[in-house]
From TrEMBL:
PANTHER family: D,D-DIPEPTIDE TRANSPORT ATP-BINDING PROTEIN DDPF-RELATED, TRANSPORT ATP-BINDING PROTEIN
MF GO annotations: ATP binding
Domain ABC transporter: residue ranges: 3-216
Region Disordered: start-end pairs: 54-78
Record's keyword terms, sorted: ATP-binding, Nucleotide-binding, Transport
ATP-binding among keywords: yes
Record's protein name: ATP-binding cassette domain-containing protein
UniProt xrefs under SUPFAM superfamilies: P-loop containing nucleoside triphosphate hydrolases
Family per similarity comment: Belongs to the ABC transporter superfamily.
UniProt-listed InterPro entries: AAA+_ATPase, ABC_transp_ATP-bind, ABC_transporter-like_ATP-bd, ABC_transporter-like_CS, P-loop_NTPase
Domain of life (superkingdom): Bacteria
């Protein structure tokens, strides 16, 4: 049981270069894996592939043996949730925080949201009325409300000051340790990953050498 990418290849169009070329990676439940690499090498793309937001042209991704997608038949949310860097962009600006959280997990009450993540006084505000750090904590709470098996945390603290950064990571690590959630933490900040992850892999180590001339049948 794990979140797995197996020999995954992806490009954003037939005329585009391969962004992910032969990536293989596994994240175990309860494990925090740091994915490091410079800007533009495909870290976010690999995260989206692992979360089922993109489909590989070759290879496969799975979460505990099944495709990383919501199950429309049963209504089960995607077991792989993504928390993005730009917290405010991930929220509908016309919805209050309480509505944003309720939409993530229909039937859940605001009382189920950890108040250390989202204090009750934020629930009645709109996204533009909360700070970047608070917005990121709302996004984290929203992801956790779906009871995910895995989280892809994509540069979640890159836009935050050091104090908010530490707070977001402390809250995330507490939640994932409590619930045994596996995390892929994506960042170009290696010292940060070394501080928060159980192990850090460089994207160059999990992909094959970039070989744009390799023919891949799509
Ligand atoms: N929707 C898209 N359409 C076309 N190309 C894209 C798209 N999204 C990303 N790319 C390209 O794919 C490559 C990898 O982008 P990606 O965002 O995965 O890199 P990254 O390592 O996460 O970078 P960063 O650390 O700057 O966020 C880049 O060259 C980028 O321009």
């Amino acid at each position: 049981m794990s979140l797995v990418a197996e020999n995954v290849w992806f490009r954003y169009g037939r005329r585009h270069p391969w962004v992910v070329s032969g990536a293989s990676l596994a994240v175990e439940p309860g494990e925090v894996v740091g994915l490091h690499g410079p800007s533009g090498v495909g870290k976010s793309t690999l995260g989206k592939l692992l979360a089922g937001l993109l489909t590989p042209q070759r290879g496969s991704t799975s979460a505990d043996g099944t495709p990383p997608n919501p199950d429309r038949r049963t209504g089960r949310p995607n077991p792989v949730q993504v928390v993005h860097q730009h917290a405010h962009l991930a929220m509908d600006p016309l919805w209050k925080i309480t509505t944003i959280l309720a939409e993530a997990a229909p039937g859940s009450a605001p009382a189920e949201v950890d108040p250390s993540l989202v204090p009750p006084n934020l629930l009645d505000r709109f996204p533009h009325e909360i700070s970047g750090g608070e917005a990121q904590r709302v996004n984290l709470a929203r992801a956790l409300l779906t009871a995910p098996r895995y989280l892809v945390a994509d540069e979640i603290s890159a836009s935050l000051d050091p104090i908010s950064q530490a707070a977001v990571w402390r809250l995330l690590l507490t939640a994932v340790r409590t619930h045994g959630i596996g995390v892929l933490a994506i960042s170009h900040d290696r010292p940060l990953l070394a501080a928060v992850a159980d192990r850090v892999v460089d994207i160059a180590d999990v992909t094959g050498t970039i070989q744009e001339t390799v023919p891949v049948v799509t």
